[in-house]
Each structure stands twice: as C-alpha cells, then as structure tokens.
Design a protein that fits this description.
Layout lengths: L2 H12 L4 H15 L10 E5 L4 H21 L4 E7 L6 H13 L8 E7 L2 E4 L8 H16 L5 H22 L6 E4 L3 H17 L11 H20 L4 H5 L12 E4 L12 H7 L18 H16 L4 H18 L4 H10 L3 H19 L3 H9 L3 H4 L2 H8 L7 H9 L5 H11 L3 H9 L15 H7 L4 E7 L6 E7 L2
Parallel strand pairs: 1-2, 1-5, 2-3, 5-6
Antiparallel strand pairs: 3-4, 7-8
C-alpha cells in the first residue's frame, strides 16, 4: 500500500467523525480555487504552523485535504508549511512540530515543503536547529524597550511586536521560492474583513494612508508595514533608524494571492479533536511550552511573573497577590477560548498553592535568564519603568532598589538627556537595565504610561493598540503597602 494511502487512511481514522466528510467537501472547494487545475503539482498552498494545538489541527486537516486530492487525481498541490520561530518558542514546541510532521508523513513527501522562518531568513525545518543569536537579541531588545515604556505590561511587552513579526512571516513565507497561490486560514471571511478594516482604521488614526483595499492581502501587508515602522519608531526612538528598518513587514507578494478559509469545515475547540492531537500527532502539553492560552510559547509564564514582580516591588504588596490577579484573568480567557476544562484545571493547579507559585517563579526566572539573558534585577528595573518619559519614575526606583545611586540622580538625568557623558555611570545603568545607553536615552525622550492611565486620552500608536486590545481587564488593585486602590490593567495571553 502506498505511503500516501496509509497516512490518509490513518488520518481518517484519527479525525473526529464529522471531519471526514468535511475534508472531502473542503478538498472539492480547494480544487476549484486553485489557478492551474490541469497541472495540480504547479500550485502551492501555504499553511502556517506556529506549533500550538490549533495550528497542529489545521496542518493535519490540510494534510488530509492534500492527500484526498492525490487520491482523486493521482497528483496534488505543493503543500508549504511555514513556522515562525522566536525566542519564546522552547524546544518542546519544536519537538511537537517534529512529531506532527512524522505522523503526517510530511518529511518524505516531495509534494511537501517544511519551512522555518526566523525574521527574513528562510531555511528547511529541522527540530534541533539552534536559535540564532541575532534572533534572540532581536526579540530581547523589543521586549525590554516595550516593557520599559509600560511597566512590563504583558501584552505590550511581548505581543505587539510579535504580532507584527507574525504578519511579516506571512509575507516572507508567501514570497519565498516563487511564491504561493493560496494561504490557508482558520478565520472566517467576516473575521478576515474585520481584521483588515481594523488595520486600516488603526493606520488612519496613526496618520498613515492605508494601501488601496483592492490590493487585497498585499495591500494589508503594505498597510501593516507602515504601522510597523511607526510602532517601532515609537518604541525604539528615531535614533535607532537601522533597527526600525529591519522590523518592517514584507509585502512583495503577488497581488493575486488569496486566502482560503477552512473555517466552515473545521472545529477549533480542542476537545473535539483531542484524540487526533494527543494519540495520532503525539502532541504533548509540556509544562514549559503550555502556558495559559498558549501551547506554543513560554512567554505567558513570564507575563505572569512580571505582574508578580510589579506588585511586589513597585506596589509594595506580595508577589503572590500579583500572580493571583494574572491567573484570574488568564483562566477566564482560557474558558472564553474554549479550552478543555482539564487544561484550565492544569494551569489553575500550577498556581494554586504557595509552593506552586514559588516553583513557577523559579521556572520563570530561569526562563528569563536562559532565553533572553535577563536576570531578576533587569526585570525589576523594567517593571519600574524608571528611564522612560523623562525618567519620571527614576527617583522611586533608585530609592527602593539602588539607594547608593541616589546621590548621582541628577548626574544620571543629565546622562539620560544627553547633556553629560559619564562612562562609568553609563556602564552602571547598562548593567542594571540590560539596555545600551543609546536605548536608555531613546526611552528618556519617549512616552511612558502607567497601568492606571486612561489610554483613550493618550496619543501614539501604542496607546491606540492598547485601547482596542480585547485581551485585557480593568481591576481594582492595591498599589501601595497601605492598600490604596486604583483601576489597574491586567493583560496577557
């Protein structure tokens, strides 16, 4: 029996019962959407695989469609599977991807192309490839610069830059080696339209001219490129022109490129395809990779850690109090995203006891050190945001964390403002922050906002993105040892 036939038969047995006829229907629809039906092998269809549970299911479903057309016609399209890699993707995620590819027989299929995207670099996927140092530094400095402007706010620190990198990966993957004809998405056509309209509205509010809507996805990427340039200029400062330029969104793709939605054929509630994920694909919900709403990223554990650090150090309360606030928010988000209750319970149990909180604190500390080269002192510095916004929070930070530098406060302000050069003092600031003095000066000259601030009254793209972010809640939080309460923002994944 041919390998293709064996894999397809195994897949049909592993898929939820309702997905089997859905695959047949989807295969017919996809065939109709391909531009060169008389030469199926000359068509390329791309599906993104981030390494999480939902994208693993999407890849398995599309592999079934891929093999179904081979069964019907004797040939099939070229299936391009692209994975964006970033520092927050630990090795267990790469191992999950590898097991998925093996289960689906993709490694030995000449009609399959498995790509690893690292910024603008494209190379064949391999489980054991080390993370490039340049990519780690790229992600680290984005995290620090965003976090220093926002008290280490979860979404701003990690997700805004990452979302733009994801958009770039679609452009990079779609243009590679002759390009692709279709990009598979799990979003409904309405969700796609709403997202495109949100991007255009955001561009107009930022003073940018959106690309012509008739350009389709190419125009969306062009608009996102303008937003990326504006966002990173705001985060990194105009002084870092080279850094800003390399953080654009690739848009040099064919204008005819279209999306193909599998939304109507699939069920993304992971409980519906649990057997497929765990038994057939060998998907493991690893403690490092599975954090709150993410099953492909360790960064949410660090988001919770930052909330705990801010509550402990800046608010003078306890680390556990901040963790409880984040966990309450994140568990509710998991339920809204239809996570199986046993996975929600697994996360809840991790943080349910003091010992559990302490164990996760150690794990997050170790993760920050190993992934980003950041020690606890660097993270504590970030949640104070002492250098941004004309160093408005500098005095409180020095008094609490570095009283030995209080006598040098005015000298530090002069160095940050560029009015003085002091190599020894600049080196000390670089050690405690993890950033260069050039970056610290960019922070000094830019804005800073507090979690209690009404972002709708603020200017700038960061504020606009924050206001429209659905992954946040406003809570009454005690922000002093005495228990003074303010409206505070909790955000994350």
């Amino acid at each position: 029996m041919p390998v293709h036939t064996t894999v397809l038969d195994d897949l049909r047995r592993a898929l939820p019962e309702q997905d089997v006829p859905a695959v047949e229907e989807c295969a017919t629809k996809l065939y109709d959407a391909l531009p060169r039906k008389d030469d199926l092998g000359s068509n390329t269809v791309m599906v993104a695989y981030g390494g999480g549970k939902d994208s693993a299911y999407a890849v398995a479903f599309m592999r079934a469609v891929h093999l179904t057309l081979a069964e019907r016609h004797g040939r099939t399209f070229r299936l391009r599977v692209s994975t964006l890699r970033h520092s927050g993707m630990p090795y267990p995620v790469m191992a999950n991807i590898d097991r998925t590819y093996r289960a689906l027989g993709l490694y030995d299929d000449p009609d399959a192309e498995l790509l690893l995207l690292e910024g603008d670099q494209v190379r064949p996927f391999a489980r054991d490839l080390p993370l490039p140092h340049r990519l780690v530094e790229f992600n680290r400095v984005d995290m620090l610069m965003s976090g220093h402007r926002t008290y280490g706010d979860g979404r701003s620190t990690f997700c805004n830059a990452c979302n733009l990198n994801v958009a770039n990966s679609f452009g990079v993957g779609a243009r590679h080696d002759g390009g692709v004809d279709l990009i598979v998405t799990g979003d409904s056509p309405k969700e796609q339209r709403d997202y495109a309209l949100w991007i255009r509205r955001l561009a107009r509010e930022a003073g940018l001219k959106p690309a012509d809507a008739r350009k389709g996805f190419k125009g969306t990427l062009e608009t996102l490129d303008g937003l990326a340039q504006t966002y990173f200029r705001e985060i990194h400062g105009p002084e870092n022109a080279d850094r800003i330029e390399e953080r654009g969104v690739a848009s040099d793709i064919p204008q005819k490129l279209a999306f193909f939605s599998i939304y109507d054929y699939t069920s993304y509630a992971s409980g519906a395809h649990w057997k497929l994920l765990t038994d057939f694909l060998g998907f493991v919900f690893d403690e490092i990779a599975f954090n709150f709403t993410e099953s492909d990223c360790a960064n949410p554990a660090l988001m919770a850690h930052l909330r705990g650090l801010r509550t402990e150090y800046v608010y003078g309360r306890t680390y556990g109090e901040g963790i409880d606030q984040y966990v309450d928010f994140a568990l509710d988000l998991m339920r809204r995203k239809d996570f199986p209750e046993h996975l929600v319970e697994e996360i809840r149990a991790r943080y349910a006891t003091e010992d559990g909180v302490e164990a996760m604190r150690k794990a997050a500390t170790r993760y920050g050190e190993e992934t980003f080269g950041l020690e606890t002192g660097h993270l504590v510095c970030m949640v104070y945001s002492p250098f941004a916004g004309r160093a408005v929070n500098l005095h409180g930070y020095l008094a609490a964390e570095h009283p030995e530098l209080l006598a040098d406060e005015e000298r530090i302000r002069a160095v940050l403002a560029g009015r003085a050069e002091d190599q020894a003092l600049a080196a000390r600031l670089e050690r405690i922050s993890g950033l260069s003095v050039t970056d610290l000066r960019a922070l000094h000259d830019g804005p800073v906002w507090s979690p209690s601030m009404d972002m709708s009254t603020q200017s700038g793209l960061l504020a606009q993105v924050t206001v429209s972010d659905p992954h946040q809640v406003r809570i009454r939080a005690k922000t002093s040892p005495e228990g003074d309460e303010v409206l505070d923002r909790v955000s994350g994944r």
